Amino acid sequence: MSEDNTSSATERRPDWAAFIIAVFLFAVAGVMAWDALHLKTIAQYDRIGPATAPQMVAFGLFCLGIWTAFEAWRGDFPERDRQEVAPVIWIVAGLAGQMLLLRVAGFSIATGILFALTARGFGKRKLWISLPFGIVLSFVVWAIFSQLLQLTLPAGPLEHLFF
């Protein structure tokens, strides 16, 4: 029985990815606390003001950072699966494409490209099907928001062709 305890103790190593997450939590908590300290109070007679909620969230994030660092040091996080990079690249490329094309090509084409590249990232191999489907679906969304709800979305050549 003592052999099992020593073998499990030797397998535990610090989880460096969790340490990075803990540092990120500390950084976000610090920025929120600093920002909350610089909020102006409206009335001095009450203890609860506009800075109370950000201070509580910063305190919660700081506690989560401590907990994450402690668990990372103990190595108690479950082992993660190997991350596949290709789907992430497809999705990020779709987001970058949408941001770059939104003003030039309009909402329908830019969001249709985002739809197609995200579908490709999730395993849909036929871009020649998902690209037109994404553009048509995005055009319907644009028409509902722009024409029926009177909200402003970037219009491109496809939108100007119909409206």
From TrEMBL:
Keywords: Membrane, Transmembrane, Transmembrane helix. InterPro entries: DUF1468. Residues 20-154 form the DUF1468 domain. This is Tripartite tricarboxylate transporter TctB family protein. The chain crosses the membrane at residues 16-37, 49-70, 90-115, 127-145.
